[in-house]
Design a protein that fits this description.
about 260 residues; mainly alpha; Outer Surface Protein A, domain 3
């Protein structure tokens, strides 16, 4: 089969699956193949195989949308059925799903929301809410990495933090991690979270003060005592106690005599 025809057939099949107006496809099954300049025989095959194509369309769309429904239940509750359908159809229209793995659909959707800014004029917290819903999964799936050499188990004033590869500190303008399907509109307040996983792979979210979040970020590149002093934390012992606890929980791999980032 000539390469050009193969590509146009693939494009026609994708359009039949992804286009929003199913009624128009039922009324004129050959519309997408005709638009792409396929032969009359190819156009007729869409007419002749319409029931099979409609079944395939339903199954394929279900495979694309179910991962989103599973991953973003609070966002779905916020939007309601009508706006959720509009949002997900706009995502399908963007034709961004390239990976053969279901696990990549939700991160691709999140990236599309970030770039497209869909719905964020109406719901300024929408992107943060979507990010919070997928955050635990991203941390859980983050690839393991080799531990750097020379790490200490105990922190001291002159050491630097060695984060676990999966650990993240995130800042939101709304308390989106507290939103639920029953109450999907989050409180508008600055929120900092530490997302990490333990040795068993279980993921945890810890709400941080602004000072603690800043300390954890800054102490990766400047010594612990210097980072604490910059934040007005004169007593270092509570800071060291917190850092020991975070290493035991798995958020930190240890403490380094040199900066690692």
């Amino acid at each position: 089969m000539p390469e050009g025809r193969t590509q146009r057939l693939q494009q026609a099949a994708a359009a039949f699956i992804l286009e929003a107006d199913e009624a128009a496809l039922e009324a004129d099954p050959a519309r997408v193949s005709r638009r792409l300049g396929l032969s009359l025989a190819d156009q007729q095959s869409f007419d002749q195989q319409l029931p099979a194509w409609l079944t395939y369309r339903e199954l394929a769309r279900m495979s694309l949308l179910e991962p989103l429904e599973t991953m973003f239940p609070v966002l779905m509750a916020l939007l309601g059925p009508k706006d959720w359908a509009i949002c997900t159809q706009a995502f399908l229209d963007a034709r961004l799903v390239r990976s053969p793995h279901y696990r990549d659909i939700a991160p691709t959707f999140l990236g599309w929301l970030a770039e497209n800014r869909w719905g964020q004029a109406r719901w300024p917290f929408l992107l943060e809410l979507a990010h919070a819903e997928v955050l635990e999964v991203l941390v859980a799936r983050y690839p393991d990495s080799e531990l750097p050499g020379g790490l200490q188990e105990e922190p001291d004033a002159d050491t630097f933090l060695a984060w676990n590869a999966a650990t993240q500190v995130v800042s939101y303008t709304h308390a989106v991690h507290r939103a639920s399907e029953a109450n999907p509109i989050p409180e508008a307040r600055p929120t900092q979270l530490l997302a990490y996983r333990d040795a068993e792979g279980d993921v945890f979210l810890m709400e941080l003060t602004s000072a603690t979040a800043s300390l954890l970020v800054q102490a990766r590149t400047i010594p612990v005592a210097e980072a604490a002093a910059a934040l007005g934390l004169a007593d270092l012992e509570p800071v060291l106690t917190l850092l020991r606890d975070l290493r035991q929980k798995g958020a930190l791999d240890g403490f380094s005599p040199i900066p690692l980032t």
